[in-house]
Request: fold
Amino acid sequence: VSGTLNPATDLPDLTSGTKNWPDPALSSPAKLDDLWHATINGRGAFVNAADPQQFTDGLSAVLTDISERVASSGNVTATSTSLTSNTLLFQSRFVGGNWTGDLVATRINSDGTLATTAAWKASEHIPVAASRNLYTWSGTAGISFQWANLSTAQRSAIGTSATLDYLRGATTGEARNGGSLRNRTSVLGDIVNSLPAYVGMVTDLRFERFTWTGASTYQAHRTAVASRREMVYVAANDGWLHAFDARTGEERFAYAPTGAFSTMKLLANPEYVHKFMNDGSPVVAEVHFSGAWRTVLIGTQGRGGKTVYALDVTNPDSFAANKVLWEYTHADLGQTVGNPVIARMNDGNWAVVIGNGYNSANDRAALLVLNIANGALVQRIDTMQGTSTSPNGLAAAEGVDIDRDGDFDYFYAGDLLGNLWKFDLSNSDPAQWRSAYGTVAVPQPLFTARSSTNAVQPITGGVSVGFNPADRKLWIYFGTGRYLATSDPGSTAAQTWYGLNDTGSSIASRSNLAQRVILQEGATGQGDNYRVVSKPGDTIGGTSMSGKRGWYMDLLSPTAGAEGERIINPPALGATTLFVSTLIPSSNPCEPGGRGWVLGVNPFTGGR
Reply:
């Protein structure tokens, strides 16, 4: 049975008003048209079963759409990410269905409260298409995002010049204006997982106390850029890394990594199904190379692709194509959902240190070190862990400067197979950088996270490191669990919060750690939920720290047991308390999102 309308060709005329919807009371075919009308109004997808193969393909597309919504459900709220500067709170938002986004700045009052109205909304300050400063990478240099500048391969990925104009923000080709491209209520795409990065005055890191090249001119650099325009950078799933004026919300420029091109063109399709495109959080730092200090932004596509890119944002008012430093892609590089680390290394150069992420071509976990000036691969440290049948990937790394000379010596990162790795980069020769334990051919992790039933616990949320001020011992903190694939929300496997003391040797198993337990869980008379965790000396979960290499706490409710609770972000170490947020995904796929707890413990005992 078919309707009177053709979904493949009639939508532009219907949305522009040149063709009307038929009356469903007049015929059965018109009733099918009415079903299609309902799916459009509800931002759904219409699948007609008249042709079996078409029905199969259409149903697959619908399931893919559902998967995308579930996969991003951890942030399906009014605010997906936020950042606070001295006087403004920046909150990124998105609307599912039409997949638009926004970055909203709200003023912070002197008493710490928020203003009731927004200072600005970025969606209202995107310049017209012809006036936007948009850039990408040619393969060897930065270029303006214009059809004439693109290579044959890039044009093929984009499709047509009309699509490029659409991606620049032109609305003339949209169906509501007589064209055939998807209508948008806003040019700014959805911002789901990207945390905004605020860049203003340079923090005083007192580099002048060191003797390495550039250290003595750091304060002069701070003075030189003290009055530069304050900016906030954030990536969106329209493919762009947007650069907004932090005071006005005006978009000053934007950058699209070439790895996003093939999915960006899908935005113009009236039947668009959500895709991640440029979803990573930008990281910004002051670095020194080629005889000068610069402010460099490192971005990744996150869940949207397998590209790392670098921009020189020292002076946002003079940003141009030549300020695009490099892009990096490689068979080792997967989808990097954690933040890169920008650090000075023991070879005297500044670098980007990054876990290789997930779904890489070789399925192994590796630490990648890139030269920040040109994106060259300085060193790749392969863990030798992962196969096509048991794919692996390294989460975000965290570094530590053991000897406090300004150069990072060791990095820690976890992988999908539960391994917590320690990488030794303390040598001045990058060829000597390697896993701290085992050999180059057979590296060994610092620790492998396994549950009480010996099940592997994936480490995806990153790690935090810190020193115990009482004895200067180094501690590494992380939690286990994953929230990456569409099947992950339904898992109820037991996950754990860990605190490890790195004394210079690997840790055999959780038997070398003190156990902590969630003893109580309930609600106060005021309706607030609470948990009570054990401490050393308690009858239950009170193992002494004597002779132990750390502690662990299984995320098991004392009333409900295993609920699928997991940790997908790094813990935060305060002055006297270690905090972590947990996630318990909703068991109902039609109600994406979930709930969780914020837990706080003694960092060095794991107890209350």
Q: What stands out?
A: Residues 1 and 50 are 6 Å apart (CA to CA). Confidence is low (pLDDT under 50) at residues 38-52, 62-80. Residues 52-71 form the longest helix (20 residues). The chain has seven helices and 37 strands.
